[in-house]
Amino acid sequence: MSARTRWFPATPGSLPEIRAFVRDLAGESGLHGDDARDVLLAVAEAADNAVRRAGASVVVVTWEPRDHAVLLIIEDDGVFDLEAGTAARPLGLRLLFGIADEVQVRPGKPTWPGTVVRALVRVWSRADVPDLPAPPGRPRVLLVDGDRFSGQSLAAFLHAEGYEVTLVPTIAAAQDAVLSPPALAIVDLLTSHGEGTRFAAAARASGVPVVAVSAIEPATHVADAYLPKPVHPLRVLAAVRDLLSPDS
Q1: pLDDT tens digits for 132-169?
Q2: Which of 25, 88, 122, 144 lies 20 to 30 A from 34 at CA?
Q3: Of 84, 85, 74, 26, the residue nearest 51 (C-alpha)
Q4: 140-244 classified as CATH 3.40.50.2300
Q5: Would you kindly state where each structural domain of the chain is located, as residue ranges?
Q6: CB 120 within 8 A of CB 71
Q7: What is the pLDDT of residues 101-116, one digit of tens each?
């Protein structure tokens, strides 16, 4: 899918059209769940800010797919959108800073109208994006974490270390993923309202080594290694290597 750009009049009547434009592109890109919802909400709020508070006459929305990411560009010809008497970021920008890996803002000023917001949003739900590949011979790691921000960060780190990573946010998805047994599972025990504990115990009983990462300490039968959360990725990597290559 190539980049798509569309211009909209900066009027309240354009806001439903902007939402529909982004929703359709999310669908075409295979986004679903939290990824699609967050992207749609952030773009809609940024556009609403341009329409209602920036004094703009036009809003331009660009959607550019990247590997495991979407680059969003929201432009208008108005003045930067801070509310009078406050220094807080508008809601749309707060959402973008919350969900995006990279955000750049060029604010419009009275002497130079035109605000440009660029946000690179990592996405993991696209059906056409395979799991992160690993060099031949490296083991596959199943990462189960309901916190998609910490999960994505750890998955990227392990991938950089050469592991194949399957990241899932729910126990239901983990149960599907474990049908093709991984070499090891890293499980946040609080995933799916604590169901991660049950899944970790079952995975370990089936012969899959388990690293439990959680704010609560598991019973001894749940995991082969336990790391209290928050945990540095290097400690997770050390636990993975210790279980998969104990003599190395």
Answers
A1: 444 456 789 999 998 877 788 788 888 878 788 999 98
A2: 88
A3: 74
A4: yes
A5: 4-122, 140-244
A6: yes
A7: 777 888 777 776 788 8
